[in-house]
Amino acid sequence: MTWFDLSVPLRTGMPVYPGDPEVRIAAALTVEADGANVLSLGLGSHSGTHADAPLHVGEGWAALDELPLSLFGGVAEIVDVRDVARGGAITAAQLAGIAPAGSGGASGDQDKPAKILLLHTGSAAAWGTEEYLKHPWLEEAAAQLIVDRGYRAVGLDALSVDPSSPGASDGNPAGGDFPAHAILAGNGCIIVENLTGLEQVQRARDAGSDVELFLFPLHIPGADGAPIRAVARPLPAAELRPAALRALSREEVQDAADRLVAAFAATDTEAYFAAFSPQATFIFHPEAQRLGSRSAYRTLWDSWLAGGWRVLECRSSEQDIQLLGATAVFSHRVATTVQIDRDGGRDTSDERETIIFSRAPDGGIVCVHEHLSACPQ
Predict the structure, then answer these.
(1) pLDDT averaged per 10 residues in sequence order, the chain, 377 residues
(2) What three-state secondary structure class fits 98?
(3) Within 13 Å of residue 6, how many CA atoms lie on the same side as its CB?
(4) Distance, CA of 198 to chain centre
């Protein structure tokens, strides 16, 4: 079985957060003099790859040993944010495609851990240099989105979820406030920092494998944080799909379609995109190319909104549902009126839409494909 080591080694003089205790490792006993080798360790609770407890930023909040062990293990949900500029913010829009944390078990077993969110910033390449301080960080809306999606464990290959270089956050430099920490920790979320080797997890996920994470901290009573040995392993296919998915009912499909249409008609971005699988594909006749993911469609949608676009009216008719086990085909005729710019310009369309719904591993229903074509005149 392949294992990934996602931890930086603990060494004397290694990089630490500005103001934290330095790491000092030295021989305390030796075989020659004492009959056994024993090291003396001097380090801070946030040295190297480590976990932050809520207590780290909030008096009276939970210490590490007060948290359930299930928080420190789970299946990875990884987001590639390596295109964020050094010292720049990771925005809510960039994380809009993350799936709900849910339960780690496809059968809905609540004893199995939920997903753990990993943010692949690429900052690990700068470990040991001054550039490591200029890492991407979470804007407050992004931290809140993570909480809203149900995550209680977040890790990244950077020094902090908040800025570490002065001036990077427009008023929250190193030594100032920690808004992302406060939002995450205030909602019982552990934070794992200084990960490395996340490209291994990224490659495994891109190849279609789920990846199991282990992020267990040292057992220090009352600790605000502690070093961890972060490791991961790809899960075999048998563990990815342990049970057959239940067939969809006509009522479930109708309800999912009604909710999707209603969210579109209200230009309710978050509710609308929550209806789609992250791997959903889209073919829209006005667009020259097929959209290969939910995030690709979200980027296009956001560009429309930025130009003043919004839905004014959307009417569905001639609906039909075809049930195919855990998959269903919903088709309808849709008449839409939209505002196309900030000057109030309008456009109307009469189109035929086909939506493929599928049962998700957590038991919910998601759209996995949408095809929009113009109705013949």
Answers:
(1) 92 94 96 96 96 94 94 94 93 91 48 80 93 95 94 96 69 59 95 96 89 96 96 75 74 94 94 92 92 92 94 95 94 95 93 94 88 86
(2) coil
(3) 34
(4) 14
pTM for the whole structure: 0.61
Q: Which residues pair with 236 in a beta bridge?
A: none
Angle between helices 179-186 and 140-148 in degrees, nearest 10: 10
Residue 196 CA: distances (Å) to CA of 20, 122, 296? 20, 9, 27
Select from 67, 58, 49 the least CA-distant residue to 184. Answer: 58
With residue 77 as reference, give the H or E element that holds it: strand 73-80
Given CA atoms 361, 362, 364, 367 in this order, what sign does their dihedral have? negative
Tell me the residue type at 358.
S
The residues pairing with 365 across neighbouring beta strands, listed in sequence order, are 359
- In order, the DSSP letters of 84-134 are SPTTPEEPTGGGTTPPP---S-TT--TTS---EEEEE-SGGGGTTSGGGGS
Asked if 194 and 159 count as a contact pair (C-beta separation under 8 A), the reply is: yes
- Distances in whole angstroms, Cα of residue 25 to Cα of each of 12, 14, 75, 217, 233: 5, 10, 33, 19, 29
DSSP structural state of residue 135? -
